[in-house]
Amino acid sequence: MRKYKVLITGASGFIGKAICTFAERNKDWDIYAWISGRRKVLLPDGIHVVTGDLRQPDRCDEIIQCVKPDVLLHLAWNLEDRNFLNNDANIQWIEVSLHLLRAFIKQGGRKFVFSGSSAEYGYEQEICKEGIPGKPVDLYGLSKLKFEEIAEQFCKLHHVQFASLRFFSVYGPGEEHLLHVIPLAINQLLQGKHFVCKGPNNVWDYIYIDDAAQAAIQVMQSDFFGTINIGSGVGSSMRDVFVQLAEAIGRKDLLLFENEQATGKKLVADMTRMQELGYESSTKLQQGLLKTVMWWKTMM
Question: How far apart are the C-alpha atoms of 245 and 252, rounded to whole Å?
Answer without folding.
Answer: 8
